[in-house]
Amino acid sequence: MTDYKLDNRTRKWIKEERGKGSGRDYHPWLTVRDLPSQGRSHRVMGHLTQRTHHLLSDMELAAFLLLEWNPAVTDIREQFPLRLEDTLVLAEEANIRHPEIGGCTQVMSTDFVIDISAPSGPGPQRMAIQVKASSDLKDPRTVEKLELERRYWQRKEVSWYLVTEKQIPKTVVNNLELLYSARVQGESPEVLFNSLPTYLASLNANPNSRLPEVGMLIDQSYSLEPGTALARLRALMALRALTFDISIPWNQLVAGDIQVVEDITLLRASYAANQ
Amino acid sequence: MPSYQGNPLIEALPPILERKQLKAGLGGSIKLRPADIYLDGETRIHIISQLLDGFFQPLARHIQLESKISVMLRGGYVGRNLATGDLSAHIQNGYERIMRGDLLDFRFDHVESTAKSLAFIGCSGSGKTSSLNRILATYPQLIHHPEHNFTQIVFLKIDCPHDGSLKSLCHNFFREIDSILATNYVRRYGEKRHSVETMIALMSQLANTYAIGLLVIDEIQHLSVRASGGAEKMLNFFVTLVNEISVPVVMVGTPKARPVFETDLRSARRGAGFGSILWEPLSKPSAEENVLRTEWGAFTQKLWKYQWLTKASETVPDELRELWFDLSQGIMDVVIKLFVLSQIRAVVTGTERITPNIMKAVYQDELKPIHPMIEALRSGDPSKIARYSDLTIPDIDKKILELSNLLESSKDQIRKSVQYGGNDQAIRLHNMLVDMGYESDLLEPLVQRAFEEYTDLQIKDLMPIILKWYQSSEQSPPVKRKQKPKSIKAKDWHTLNSDDLRFMHSQAANEERMLGAVQQSGLVFNTDQWLASVD
């Protein structure tokens, strides 16, 4: 059972404690630098974890945005390594060849492992997510590795889900990307929350106008630099102080589609605590 | 029932069945023993094949048929009371008819007939004959009345001859009576050069002499109008039986027989004397109905229980149930045959559960002859349906034989052929252990040893002993572990568990189907739900 061989790289990574830690201190098993580029890889700052996430494809980025958007998520770990001893046993049980390269056993990894703790939910939970293009499901070897992964998480009593491009709605992801960047450039949440009543009044006064028009009106009446109000509007939406149906394409939104969050003090408090 | 009282012919019949007794009486006789699932494939094929004849699920239509037959049978005897002489009058009238050769002749005043007739029409394979046989089997066929020195035939069932001729029908009638009473009417009446008229009169006389309670004539669609006006004459004869001699008649046929009833207005009215029963294939449940409450749902659900496969699921998967209907169009015979053949194929291939792929393959490979019929039914075009109404599935036993031969040749690959000198129990135990995940070269000697050392123990007691040996031997050094797990080849993935992604892959034609299957097992991320939980 114990007669496996590791290559130098894997041994080094284990020594570096990759895959360990949580929140800010988590180190992914694989980083963007470790792999030859396959499509587009991304390094993005996580608003939740306050660290750089290593995402190896556009699809992983889209999945990441979807996951981060849910306020119940408390931690996101990407490229999460599976315990080698366990996958070896499972591979034998399932009669699947364990991944190896040149005689050296490879550590398997799952794309995302997230912690969830919804205020109304059943308490902290874990969820594992693997991102794959649906065309990969044709390949028997991919299916074997997925089956190993499924068994691994089943054994750990963690729900495991597959995400393919069919689970990633384009409109939603476009919106999420926009909101993501709105938060990066934004001012401090405190300032934004204070300006909320002003924006709300303008939105309510022009329910059929598109957001850029509303922004322009506010810019004019407060003599702001053009675009400032729209950027703040977006930032408020990114903070979820203002909410809307995320499946409506961004450029079709009108002021009437926007609602204000019910308990603004609670939201404020949660952001204040995170600072 | 006052009109039944004092009539020995009726009083000798078993009491009218209550619905519950009836259901129990009609139901099939197959035994479900869970442990049989672990028998070797060869034996299981035999067990599964029983379904072809042994499975019967009483439905509302069977209850209705039974009550009609029950009423007809008793009602027919009302006008032929053995104790009052009504029957003797019938017999004397019958004698006059033989002597004069005129069916309308009689000496005594005409005795009121209380007999009725029933036309029973249903698609081939809808279970007409088997239902009738089961219903009739709830009655004794012969009852002897010692006090009257009289033998009563409760029911007589004959098939319409293939050539549609009257003469052969009469022969069948005599032969049937001979076979139950050990008489020699075929020789006495049938082999003489009697005219058809005389033979018919002889038949009616016999029907009276033995007080035949119910005459069932099956395969009525063979009555050919071409065969010398046979159809009309025969129908006339049935009408006479019903009307003059008081024998209730059930005419059974496929929809092809309908024109026969409609050729002659008088016969048509008579043919439908006690109404007609029309059995259509089970109908497809509509979307808003609860499938399990429909006849189709109840039937398939019940049938589904009769599986001897190690990986069978508890309930019928929706997708499979839809396919099943599509391929059978609700014809019960086809429903059962598809099920039986699919199950056998699942045993032979080692898939050990019925999947849509297997059922499709069975339909394609084994049920070719009925494809035109199924397609006609699917089209819903009545003229096309009538054209194929007589198609039956030929050589079903041959198909089973072929499949089991296949098992013989592929046995070694599926499961290590186990010898045990044909010891049933040992084979079952071995298969059970393999199924629990103890597949190993160790198993065979251990099972062998267990049976030698503990000859008096049951399987359930042997199991822990073997497991203990198994585990201790596993830890001991001489048993060398395999170096690397040998992977299961993709072509054998269909033998894996239903929740194994590799199994899903083996069943899916493309990645879309694969994703669908993964989704069904709840392993695909639900974006909508995820986003809905954000607010």
Précis, in short:
Chain A has helices at 8-15, 58-69, 84-94, 140-155, 170-185, 189-205, 211-221, 228-238, 264-274, and strands spanning 42-45, 52-55, 73-81, 100-101, 104-105, 109-116, 125-131, 159-163, 242-243, 259-260. Chain A has 275 residues and is of the alpha+beta class.
The overall strand count of chain B is: 7
Reported for the largest beta sheet of chain A, the result is: 4 strands, mixed
Percentage beta strand of chain A: 15-25%
| Rounded radius of gyration of chain A (Å) | 22 Å
Q: What is the strand arrangement across the widest sheet of chain B? A: 4-5-6-1-7
Shape of chain A: elongated
β-strand percent of chain B reads 5-15%
Tally of alpha and pi helices of chain B:
26
What is the oligomeric state here?
Answer: heterodimer
Greatest chain-chain interface?
A: A-B, 41 and 30 residues
Determine the number of helices of chain A (DSSP H or I, runs of at least 4 residues). 9
Q: Return the average pLDDT of chain B rounded to an integer.
A: 79
Strand order of the largest sheet of chain A: 3-6-7-8
Give the CA-CA distance, first to last residue of chain A: 48 Å
How large, in whole angstroms, is the Cα Rg of chain B?
Answer: 30 Å
Mean pLDDT of chain A, nearest integer? 88
Q: What characterizes the major β-sheet of chain B? A: 5 strands, parallel
